[in-house]
């Protein structure tokens, strides 16, 4: 079975491409069959690569996200993907507002995978400094490990 996974944040240039890269690495290492994409709820950066700070932080952790291109989340994503992970409540609410009645995807906050982590949302590092991008990677690595365990059980 191929797991189809989508990661969603606001602009699709920081958190969601980082999530895709971190989860892709964890799922590939676990030899789990999957396809993944990332998207943003807003069209601010459609067609653009990830933020350079996100690319650098990911590279330092062994993940290459530099070739990702931002796209906007669309209603059809509810039908194309099995799992959709939102980085925060605002984006989760935005997606649920356009959710079609026949949607089959399971939609949740990514940090619900690790309820004991101590943070329910992945903070947007865009307006902060480089340490915020490192924090995002740490959080997403914990969530990715939890998803691997879930898929294996």
How would you describe this protein?
There is one protein chain. With 153 residues, this protein is α/β, with parallel strands linked by helices. The protein has one domain: 3-Layer(aba) Sandwich (Rossmann fold). Helices cover 39% and strands 14% of the residues. It is built from five helices and four strands, in the order βαβααβαβα. A four-stranded parallel sheet has the order 2-1-3-4. It is globular, with a radius of gyration of 14 Å.
Query: Which strands sit side by side, in order, in the main sheet?
Result: 2-1-3-4
Let me know the CATH homologous superfamily.
Response regulator
Helix/strand order, N-terminal first: EHEHHEHEH
- Please give the CATH architecture: 3-Layer(aba) Sandwich
Rg, Å, rounded: 14 Å
CATH class: Alpha Beta
Specify the helix fraction band. 25-40%
Instruction: Tell me the count of domains.
Output: 1
Topology:
Elements: E1 3-9, H1 15-29, E2 34-40, H2 52-60, H3 77-80, E3 83-86, H4 89-97, E4 106-109, H5 130-152
Parallel strand pairs: 1-2, 1-3, 3-4
Short description, anyone?
The protein is of the alpha/beta class.
Key structural traits:
4-stranded parallel sheet, alpha/beta, 5 helices, 153 residues, 39% helix, Rossmann fold
């Amino acid at each position: 079975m191929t797991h189809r996974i989508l990661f969603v944040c606001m602009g699709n240039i920081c958190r969601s491409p980082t999530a895709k890269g971190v989860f892709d690495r964890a799922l590939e290492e676990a030899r789990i069959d999957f396809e993944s994409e990332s998207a943003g709820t807003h069209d601010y950066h459609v067609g653009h690569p990830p933020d350079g700070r996100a690319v650098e932080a990911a590279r330092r952790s062994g993940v290459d996200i530099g070739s990702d291109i931002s796209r906007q989340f669309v209603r059809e994503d509810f039908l194309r993907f099995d799992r959709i992970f939102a980085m925060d409540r605002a984006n989760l609410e935005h997606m649920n507002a356009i959710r079609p009645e026949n949607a089959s995807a399971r939609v949740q906050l990514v940090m619900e995978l690790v309820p004991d982590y101590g943070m329910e949302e992945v903070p947007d590092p865009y307006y902060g400094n480089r340490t915020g991008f490192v924090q995002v990677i740490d959080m997403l690595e914990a969530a990715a490990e939890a998803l691997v365990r879930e898929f294996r059980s």
